[in-house]
C-alpha cells in the first residue's frame, strides 16, 4: 500500500499531530506482529512509521536494530503490554485515550522508551493540569469591619485598593454628637481573596492559575 503526501491527525488537548509516512519497500510485508511482554499485537508498518524517529519505526524498517523473534515471527519487545495499547492506538489515530484505571505515568514511561515525541508532550501536559487541579486550594476570603462616620463613607469606599471590595454597610445609628449635629455611624464590611502561592498567601492568582482560567478550566 502506498500513501503520498502528509497525513494529519487531531491529537489530545488541542495538539495537532502531523506525520510524514514513508512508503514501505515493495518487498516488505504490510502487516507486522509485535510480541510485547508476552502479548501479541498486530498492526501495519504504516502505523508504526507514523513517528519516524521512534523505536518502533526503526525496528520494522530494520535500521541498526537487532531484535529477536518468537516462533511466529513476531518481534520480541521486553516491555509492559498494559501500556502498549494506548501507544499503538495513538499511532493509529493521533489521540490519547486511556481507561479510567490506567495510570498516565505508566504510558509516559513507555512513550519515552519508544521515543514518540508528540505523545510525550501530550501526556506531560495532561499530568501537569491534573496535578494542578488536585493541589489547587480555593482562595481564602478575608473580611474586615471598618467603622466610619457618614461624611467619611464615600471617601473610604472610593479609595479602597489592593483587592479589597465592598460587601455590606450597616447603619448603627447616631452614637456621637459633634457640635450641633448628630453624626451617623456605619459599619462597613469589606473582603479580599487570598490565593495560595509557594511564598505563602497572595492577593493575586498564580501565573498557572491565570493560564488555566484562560483555557476555560475550572479552578
UniProtKB/TrEMBL annotation:
Record Pfam families: BTB_2
GO molecular function: cullin family protein binding
Superkingdom: Eukaryota
GO BP field: positive regulation of cilium assembly; proteasome-mediated ubiquitin-dependent protein catabolic process; protein homooligomerization
One GO CC annotation: Cul3-RING ubiquitin ligase complex
BTB domain sequence ranges: 30-131
InterPro entries for the chain: BTB/POZ_dom, SKP1/BTB/POZ_sf, T1-type_BTB
Protein name: Potassium channel tetramerization domain containing 17
Organism: Accipiter nisus (Eurasian sparrowhawk)
Amino acid at each position: 500500500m502506498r500513501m503520498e503526501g502528509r497525513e494529519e491527525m487531531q491529537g489530545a488537548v488541542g495538539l495537532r499531530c502531523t506525520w510524514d509516512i514513508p512508503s514501505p519497500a515493495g518487498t516488505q510485508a504490510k502487516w507486522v506482529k509485535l510480541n510485547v511482554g508476552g502479548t501479541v499485537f498486530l498492526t501495519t508498518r504504516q502505523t508504526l512509521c507514523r513517528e519516524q524517529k521512534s523505536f518502533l519505526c526503526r525496528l520494522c524498517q530494520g535500521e541498526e536494530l537487532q531484535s529477536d523473534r518468537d516462533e511466529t515471527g513476531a518481534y520480541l519487545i521486553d516491555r509492559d503490554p498494559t501500556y502498549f495499547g494506548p501507544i499503538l492506538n495513538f499511532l493509529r489515530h493521533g489521540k490519547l485515550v486511556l481507561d479510567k484505571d490506567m495510570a498516565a505515568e505508566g504510558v509516559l514511561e513507555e512513550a519515552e522508551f519508544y521515543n514518540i515525541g508528540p505523545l510525550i508532550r501530550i501526556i506531560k501536559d495532561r499530568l501537569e493540569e491534573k496535578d494542578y487541579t488536585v493541589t489547587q486550594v480555593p482562595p481564602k476570603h478575608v473580611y474586615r469591619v471598618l467603622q466610619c462616620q457618614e461624611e467619611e463613607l464615600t471617601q473610604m469606599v472610593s479609595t479602597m485598593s489592593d483587592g479589597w471590595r465592598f460587601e455590606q454597610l450597616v447603619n448603627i445609628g447616631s452614637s456621637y454628637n459633634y457640635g450641633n449635629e448628630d453624626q451617623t455611624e456605619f459599619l462597613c464590611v469589606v473582603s479580599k481573596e487570598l490565593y495560595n502561592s509557594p511564598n505563602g498567601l497572595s492577593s493575586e492568582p498564580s501565573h498557572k492559575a491565570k493560564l488555566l482560567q484562560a483555557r476555560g478550566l475550572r479552578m
